[in-house]
């Protein structure tokens, strides 16, 4: 059966339309594919650039993440500092390590007895206890009676030398503190804090026990009680009955 001219006329137009439509679709697909290839080439060039500059390949997602962080920081008007450092295996220990020589010093006496100055090296041959304290430190105030009592019973008889070092209070307060607590061992003033720094004092009270050769044998970074004081003295050769 032969179609009439009226029915056959639209067919070529439909074929042409479908051909044109397929061409448009093919063109769109080609453009998208080209865009993907261009983006892939750009990412590969970027990764190659970082590999060449830094010496190791970079993860693309990591780069995008860092870029977002930087953008957020800039928009917020702040700064983001990322420091990639290995964590220390152990936290730094305050104070001088046991077995190390005690740093020498010469300080004026502002309270207690003795003076006008004390030089640590001149005390070589005697066990020495150095107590770093402050008038406003409650644990320091609580341990003073124990220190004074032990010093009166044994230190004043030549068993050991006890020194209190203060860097935080005016010298007048050091003197009045000594009178209030009836301290008879020397209270020294570390005006510039150089002795505290040399002994790495990061908290008070801190007490050093130094043997006759001037070597640190024990450190107490806490309030002393009778047990810790006896143990520290025993470490420097002072045996209390």
UniProtKB/TrEMBL annotation:
Keywords: Coiled coil, Membrane, Transmembrane, Transmembrane helix. InterPro entries: AhpC/TSA (IPR000866), Thioredoxin-like_sf (IPR036249), Thioredoxin_domain (IPR013766), Thioredoxin_ResA/DsbE_sf (IPR050553). The keyword Transmembrane applies. Residues 96-238 form the Thioredoxin domain. The lineage of its organism: Bacteria, Bacillati, Chloroflexota, Ktedonobacteria, Thermogemmatisporales. It comes from the Bacteria. One of its GO terms (molecular function) is antioxidant activity. This is Alkyl hydroperoxide reductase. The keyword Transit peptide does not apply. The chain crosses the membrane at residues 63-85. Residues 25-52 form a coiled coil.
């Amino acid at each position: 059966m032969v179609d009439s001219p009226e029915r056959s006329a639209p067919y070529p137009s439909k074929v042409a339309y479908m051909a044109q439509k397929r061409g448009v679709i093919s063109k769109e697909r080609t453009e998208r594919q080209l865009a993907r290839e261009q983006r892939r080439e750009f990412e590969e060039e970027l990764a190659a650039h970082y590999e060449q500059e830094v010496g190791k390949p970079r993860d693309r997602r990591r780069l995008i993440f860092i870029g977002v962080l930087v953008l957020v920081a800039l928009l917020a008007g702040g700064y983001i500092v990322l420091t990639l450092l290995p964590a220390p295996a152990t936290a730094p220990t305050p104070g001088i390590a046991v077995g190390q020589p005690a740093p020498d010093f010469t300080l004026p006496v502002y309270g207690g007895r003795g003076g006008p100055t004390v030089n640590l090296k001149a005390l070589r041959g005697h066990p020495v206890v150095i107590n770093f304290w402050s008038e406003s430190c409650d644990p320091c105030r609580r341990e003073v009676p124990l220190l004074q009592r032990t010093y009166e019973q044994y230190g004043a008889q030549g068993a050991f030398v006890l020194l209190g070092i203060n860097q935080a209070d005016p010298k007048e307060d050091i003197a009045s503190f000594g009178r209030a607590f009836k301290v008879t061992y020397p209270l020294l003033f570390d005006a510039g804090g150089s002795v505290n720094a040399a002994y790495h004092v990061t908290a008070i009270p801190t007490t050093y026990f130094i043997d006759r050769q001037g070597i640190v044998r024990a450190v107490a970074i806490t309030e002393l009680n009778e047990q810790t004081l006896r143990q520290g003295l025993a470490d420097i050769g002072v045996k209390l009955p």
